[in-house]
Design goal:
By secondary structure, the protein is mainly β. It is built from three helices and 31 strands.
C-alpha cells in the first residue's frame, strides 16, 4: 500500500480524469480494471481508489510519492509555463531545470521478479515490456518476461513453439505484433538464425530464410525501416564487423536476406554501438572493436545507401550504451569504456546535431552498461544491466511528462545540410 512506501519508491496508476467530479477515475473505472489480477479484490480497489482520488493529475499518468516527497494535488501545484523544464515545478520541491533529470526507482506489486540480467533486450508493445534473453553471469537465458506498466506486475510467459537457444548480445526488433530475434551468443557459440515471437499467440517460430545470410555475430544493431530490418556491425569470435544487411520482412514466414552495398564514409568495424532510425536515416553512435572505444557518429541515408560521418563526438567514447529517439532528441544513456562505467544521459538534438548534457539527480549511483531501455507514457525506462561489479534486476525511469517540455518533442528530421557530405560542420 502507498502508506508503507519509502520516499524513493513510486507507484503508477493509469487513469482517466473526470472533470465533473474533479477526480481521476482509476482502477475501478479505467484500463487497469481490464487487467485486474487476483490480488486486486474489491477491498484493495476501494482502498487504493480512496487514496489516489485525493491526488491531482497533470497528465495521463499519475505519480504519487509519500508525504515527505512531492505530492501531486491540486492545492500544491504551481503553474508551469516555462519550456525550460523536464518535469513539473511543485511547491516544496526543487526546480527541474533543463540541465537536470530526476531518476526514480519503480516498485513492483508482484512477488515474482526477473533475474538480475545484462546483455538482454526489451521491447514495448501495448504498454507491456517484453524482456528476452541476457545473462546472469552464470548462464544465458531464453525466457521471456513481461512487465505490465498498467499493473506494475512481472509475468513469466508460458509459451508455445520452439524458442531460440539461450543467448545474449542479440537484437530484438518490433515488426507489427511480432518480435524478431537475430544473432547473439552463448559462451563460445555465435548465432545467425532468425526467430519470431508472435505476441498475440505467445508463440515462437523459426521462419524459412534465404540461403544467403550474415555470418553469426553478437553486439550488432537492428533498425526497422519500410518493412525491413537493417543490421549493422557486431563481432565474431575473431573480428569486429562493419557490414550492412537487410532482412525483408514483408512476409515474416519467408523473410529475405540481402547484403546492402554502400558508398561514402563507412564506419570502421565495431560492436556494442547504438543505432536509431530517424526519418529515412540510420544513426550509428560509438562502439568498440575490442582495441579502441569509439565516440564517433555516422549517418546512413538508407534510400541512397550513403554513409556520412558527422563532425561531432561523444563527450566520452563508449560502448554498451543505450540510445532512444524521443521527438527531436536522441537520449544516450550509460555505457562504458575500458576502465569506467558511465551514469550520464546526453541528448543529441537531431535537427542541429548539437549536444545537450543532462545531469541525473538520484539517491543511488546509476552507472550502467549492457542495460535495456524503452520509452512509454512520457517516461524513459531502464531495465537491468551492470556497473561492472553488480548485476541488476531493477527498473528506473526518467520522467519527461512536463507538457511544456514534451510539447517541443514532436519529432524532427535531420537538417539536410548535415546530410550533405560537402558541408563543413566543424
Amino acid at each position: 500500500m502507498l502508506s508503507n512506501q519509502s520516499d524513493d519508491e513510486i507507484s503508477f496508476y493509469n487513469f482517466e480524469y473526470h472533470k465533473e467530479a474533479n477526480l481521476p477515475r482509476i482502477l475501478t473505472d479505467g484500463p487497469l480494471k481490464l487487467k485486474k489480477k487476483s490480488f486486486m479484490n474489491d477491498s484493495f480497489l476501494s482502498s487504493e481508489s480512496s487514496i489516489i482520488s485525493k491526488a491531482y493529475s497533470y497528465s495521463s499518468l499519475l505519480s504519487i510519492k509519500t508525504a515527505s516527497s512531492i505530492l501531486f494535488n491540486k492545492e500544491k501545484q504551481e503553474d508551469v509555463d516555462s519550456d525550460d523544464l523536464l518535469s513539473p515545478v511543485l511547491s516544496n520541491s526543487v526546480n527541474c531545470s533543463a540541465s537536470e533529470m530526476y531518476l526514480t526507482k519503480a516498485i513492483f506489486y508482484s512477488s515474482f521478479q526477473i533475474h538480475a540480467l545484462k546483455s538482454h533486450t526489451a521491447n514495448i508493445l501495448e504498454n507491456e515490456i517484453f524482456v528476452f534473453g541476457g545473462t546472469n553471469d552464470f548462464e544465458c537465458l531464453n525466457s521471456i518476461f513481461v512487465f505490465d506498466l498498467d499493473t506494475m506486475y512481472w509475468h513469466f510467459l508460458k509459451i508455445n513453439g520452439k524458442p531460440p537457444m539461450p543467448c545474449q548480445n542479440h537484437t530484438a526488433t518490433n515488426v507489427g505484433k511480432n518480435i524478431v530475434i537475430f544473432g547473439g551468443n552463448d559462451e563460445k557459440t555465435y548465432y545467425n538464425t532468425v526467430h519470431v515471437f508472435d505476441v498475440t499467440r505467445y508463440y515462437w517460430y523459426t521462419p524459412i530464410t534465404s540461403t544467403v545470410k550474415p555470418i553469426p555475430r553478437k553486439g550488432h544493431t537492428a533498425c526497422f525501416y519500410n518493412s525491413s530490418i537493417y543490421y549493422f556491425g557486431g563481432e565474431t569470435d575473431t573480428k569486429a564487423l562493419n557490414d550492412l544487411w537487410k532482412l525483408d520482412c514483408s512476409d515474416l514466414d519467408f523473410p529475405i536476406w540481402s547484403e546492402v552495398e554502400t558508398t561514402g564514409h563507412k564506419p570502421s568495424p565495431r560492436a556494442y554501438h547504438s543505432a536509431n532510425i530517424i526519418g529515412s536515416n540510420m544513426v550509428i553512435i560509438g562502439g568498440s572493436n575490442n582495441i579502441d572505444v569509439f565516440g564517433d557518429i555516422f549517418i546512413l541515408n538508407i534510400e541512397k545507401s550513403l554513409w556520412i560521418k558527422v563532425n561531432i563526438q561523444l563527450s566520452l567514447p563508449r560502448l554498451a550504451h543505450n540510445s532512444t529517439i524521443i521527438g527531436p532528441y536522441l537520449f544516450i544513456s550509460g555505457g562504458r569504456d575500458k576502465l569506467s562505467y558511465f551514469s550520464d544521459i546526453s541528448l543529441l538534438n537531431i535537427t542541429t546535431m548539437k549536444w545537450e548534457k543532462k545531469k541525473i539527480n538520484s539517491a543511488v549511483s546509476f552507472e550502467r552498461a549492457h542495460h535495456a531501455s524503452v520509452f512509454s507514457d512520457f517516461r524513459l525506462f531502464f531495465i537491468g544491466g551492470t556497473d561492472g561489479k553488480t548485476l541488476f534486476s531493477d527498473i528506473y525511469f526518467v520522467e519527461l511528462a512536463s507538457m511544456a517540455y514534451y510539447s517541443s518533442m514532436t519529432g524532427a528530421e535531420i537538417d539536410p545540410a548535415i546530410l550533405d557530405p560537402g558541408t563543413d560542420l566543424g
